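REQUEST ID: PR-0412
SUBMITTED BY: lab tech R.K.
PRIORITY: routine
TASK: structure prediction, single protein chain
INPUT:
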Amino acid sequence: MHRLQFHYTFGSQPQGPAGLIRNPLFDLLHAVQESGSISGAARTLQLSYRHVWGELKRWEGELGHELIVWEKGQAARLTEFGNKLLWAERQAQARLSPQIEALRADLERAFAVAFDDTVHVLTLYASHDDALSALRTHAASQHQLHLDVRFTGSVDAIRALNEGRCVMAGFHTLHQPGQGSLAEQTYKPLLKTGLHKIIGFAQRSQGLMVAKGNPLGLRSLHDLTRSGVRFVNRALGTGTRVLFDELLAQAGIGAGKIKGFDHTEPSHTAVAQAVAAGQADAGLGIEAAARARGLDFVPLVEEDYHLVCLKSALDEPAVQALCAVLQSDGWQAVLHQLPGYRLAEPAGQVLSLRRTLPWWNYRTEKVPSGARKKAPSAVRAKKASGARARPARQSAQERKPQKMSSRPGRK
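STATUS: complete
OUTPUT:
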């Protein structure tokens, strides 16, 4: 059985009859049938005799059947197999021509976007999020901005951005996660001040997705350790898995105490479906996914969903178009209708990493060298006298005003 593969031509001029899928073999057979000779077929197709003859021989070897009756001094004609092959192709073209024409029209409409200066396309790798799906639909229908969204884990999304596979990435963290947190350990090595910029997007609730009515009365992470409670987790590398591991560490709960910790699903929707199907009693996820599957939702934390891009991409038309969409009243009305979501402030504005995440918000001041030298002697004097030590006499150089380091500017 020979399998079919399709390809299409692309250009400003039509390539043969409209609505037809062309194949060089059938073009050859049709030309031989119409002209009655190899040379005539070559003239019709504007090819050399040697090329046509060689291609026919190659196809005979490929298909395992003769296509042409090769008789010296006689007009070239198709064999019975060649005639049946050409007949089958014509029948298929006749039956499928409406579908073929519709497919061609769809392809032309899709490619028309590339030639429309008012339309923009932005490739975005992001952690799974219902608001992004809604944004994709709204931006395409109302603002001629097409978001090519590839849902993946937060870590993989930022890596894709840094490797040039996308223009923007989406990831999420607890609101103002503390220094030394798992979020800092995960994301800080991937982000660089001065290189990356945050664009305000949304805030959302994460919590336990449980069966309707919450029959087990699950209210906290500690309830997940109760006997018989089955949990469904997210995979390593996802932002929700980073969040869950962070929350467990804060609560002092070991992973081994949770039944189903190693049972993972790829998205919030898949986790919600597992709970709805009775495969698990609870899973950590967003409220919108829980409500969509008829589940109850127990909110646990608030988090920020960040959009991040390279600083060098801020002036690109697609990024500018996205910022305009995020600031529009239409999009903000759509977001307010999603359960568990709130607008980030300021939405659609370009923010520095220092402003958005706390890991770069610390300031280090230089200690004057004279103070470092005096410290040991001052301590010894205090211990010896039992009273507050009097400052030692400063030298003329030490009495000079010290130049304090300037505050680090926001990048």
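NOTES: Residues 24-114 form a domain with the Arc Repressor Mutant, subunit A fold (CATH 1.10.10.10).
REVIEWED BY: pending
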